[in-house]
Amino acid sequence: MPQSSESQSLRVHRKGRKLTLRFFSVSPCLRGKTLFSKQLTFFAFLLLFTVSPSCSFMKKDTTGLPQKYKVDVEQLQVRSDVKITKKDPLFQELTQLRQEISDLLELPAPNRPVIVHLFKDEDRYSEYMQKQHPNLPARRAFFIGSPTELAVYAHWGPSMAEDLRHEYTHGVLHASLHTVPLWLDEGIAEYFETRTRDSKRRHPEHSPKLALAISNGWSPDLLRLEKIETVSEMHREDYQEAWAWVHYFIHDCPDGRAMLVDYCDALKISNQSPGFAAQVYEHVPAAEVRLASYITSELGNNNVVQADGQSVE
Ligand SMILES: [Zn+2]
What we know:
This protein has 313 residues and is of the alpha/beta class.
C-alpha cells in the first residue's frame, strides 16, 4: 500500500500588485514506496524556485509536458499523454473528490485552477521531472504549488488513482485556503487518498500500524505534530498520525468536524497558520487518550473494504 511521496507546496503571497515570495514552506508528502528516499533538501528547493525581481515568473520548459489531450472543467485542468475525456471515470472521480473535500470542510470556491499533468508512463514522467526539477528526489507523484500554478505531476499506471487523489487533495486545499499547516495538509490528503467503501474510511496501511504502535506504548501528540513545519522533520509515522487525527475529528470526536471547518475558516485569511492543538485541548479533554482509544477500538480493525469490494487484512 503506497504511502509516501513528496509533494511540495511553495506557499507564496501576493503583496500589492507585485508577486513577492514572502516565505517558502515545502510540504512534501511521502508517496511511492519504491521511490521513497529522503526528504528533499529545503535549500535546494529554495534555490530552485527563487526568482529575481526582474524575472516576472519562473521560466519553465513546458515542451516535455503532456499536451496531447486537454480537458478543463471549472478549476480542474487535466493535460495527458493518454486520451482522456470529461466522461473518463478518473476525471469524474477528481471532480467528485474536489466536491467531497469542499463539502466536508466547507471550503470556499477555489480561487486558482489545479493543473494535473499526466504522463503516459513512469519513464516519461521521470525523465521530465529529472530534467525540470533535478534537485527533487524521485517520487511517484508530486504536487508543486508555485507562483504561476498549482500543479500535480503523475503518470498512468496501477497507482495513478491513489496518487492523484492524494496530490489533487493538496491542490484543492491550496486553491481554497491562504495557508495550510503541514500536518493538516498531509492528514487530509492521506484521508482522501483511499477509495474504501468502508463508511469509516479506514486506511489499510495506517490503521493496523497505528494500532500496533499504540500496543507498543506510543501515544499521539497533536501539539508536537503541529510544530512540524518542514518536510525534513516529518517522518512516515507523522503522516500516519496526521491521518489519525483527521480521521478522529471527522468520525468520532464530538464537534470534531465543526472544529476543522472553523479552523479552515481561519486559514482562508491567515498568513500564518494559527495553532489548532490548543483549541482541541480546550474542547476535548484528554484528546490524546481519546484518540489512542479510538485507534485501538475502531481503526485497529483490519477488515478494511476497498473500492473493489475486497477485504484486505
Ligand atoms: Zn502529500
